[in-house]
UniProtKB/TrEMBL annotation:
Coiled coil: none annotated. It comes from Hymenobacter monticola. Pfam families: DinB_2. Residues 29-162 form the DinB-like domain. Gene3D superfamilies: dinb family like domain. It comes from the Bacteria. This is DinB family protein. Transmembrane segments: none annotated. InterPro entries: DinB-like, DinB/YfiT-like.
Length: 172
């Protein structure tokens, strides 16, 4: 690896203030932010709603990344979703209304949500990680750790889909 290429987040060492058991969650979310920011630089806004072969658009993934992370963090705190969170969820339905700064705004929204996640992770008591947490209106049982891990896993899954779709629509 060249010295100009930064190490992946997980190789940079512990994230200050994040409990040891939650380091993988922090690393995954910070890595997702780095990769999303790099991939979306100069992304043409006119391609945001393209759906090659019917896959989800870059715009959907951009909205969903911040929204679902926020919702999962809410459940991890044992809180219910707000009217604003429900409105954001309902707005994730494509197509996205695109303005000149749409991509930058959505990337910044995700970055802000990652910042909130880092604050939440730093405040998390590891002793609570096996406690039951309810998910959704039905309060399907998970654990505190399960929700935090899923937040990271779900984020990386959608980031991967976004990266492939973005590359495809840029090069068609």
């Amino acid at each position: 690896m060249s010295t100009s290429t930064p190490l992946e987040v997980w190789l940079r060492g512990p994230v200050a203030g994040v409990p040891p058991l939650l380091q993988p969650v922090a690393h995954a979310l910070l890595q997702a932010r780095d990769e999303l920011t790099a991939a979306m630089q100069n992304f043409p806004p006119e391609l945001v709603n393209e759906r090659p072969a019917g896959v989800a658009s870059v715009g959907f993934h951009l909205q969903h990344l911040a929204g679902v992370l926020d919702r999962l963090l809410t459940y991890a705190r044992q809180e219910t979703l707000t009217a604003q969170q429900f409105a954001a969820f309902n707005a994730e339905v494509p197509p996205l209304v695109v303005a000149k700064d749409t991509v930058e705004k959505l990337v910044q929204d995700f970055s802000n949500t990652v910042d909130k996640a880092m604050t939440q992770l730093k405040a998390t008591d590891e002793a609570t990680l096996t406690e039951v947490r309810g998910v959704g209106r039905a309060q399907v049982p998970s654990t505190h750790l399960g929700l935090l891990f899923h937040a990271a896993e779900h984020t990386t899954r959608h980031l991967g889909q976004l990266l492939v779709t973005a590359q495809w629509v840029r090069n068609k």
